[in-house]
């Protein structure tokens, strides 16, 4: 099955977020501008973790 571009982009985003926050235990900043304006770092990481768990529990395609 050909990989859906949305799923591919989401997988890349999840990996980038997890890498960015992997050594950060102080997730307190609130973004004031940009894509995540009004979101905390905790909320962004939580979303990435939930999306990753969904793909693990209910895969659309097998990760390569």
Write a brief caption for the model.
By secondary structure, this protein is mainly α.
Describe, in plain words, how this protein is organized in 3D.
The protein has a domain at 26-64. 53% of the residues lie in helices and 0% in strands. The protein has helices at residues 5-21, 41-57. Helix 1 packs across helix 2 (41-57). The model has no long low-confidence stretch (mean pLDDT 90).
Fold blueprint:
Elements: H1 5-21, H2 41-57
Helix pairs in contact: 1-2
Keywords for this structure?
single chain; 64 residues; mainly alpha; 53% helix; elongated
Tell the overall outline: elongated
Fraction of residues in β-strands? under 5%
The H-and-E topology, N to C, reads as HH
Radius of gyration: 13 Å
Number of strands: 0
Largest sheet: none
Question: Can you count the helices?
Answer: 2
């Amino acid at each position: 099955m050909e990989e859906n571009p949305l799923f591919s982009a989401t997988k890349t985003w999840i990996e980038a977020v997890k890498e960015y926050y992997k050594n950060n235990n102080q997730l307190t900043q609130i973004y004031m501008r940009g894509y995540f304006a009004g979101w905390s770092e905790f909320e962004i990481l939580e979303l990435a973790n939930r999306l990753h768990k969904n793909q693990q529990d209910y895969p659309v395609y097998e990760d390569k």
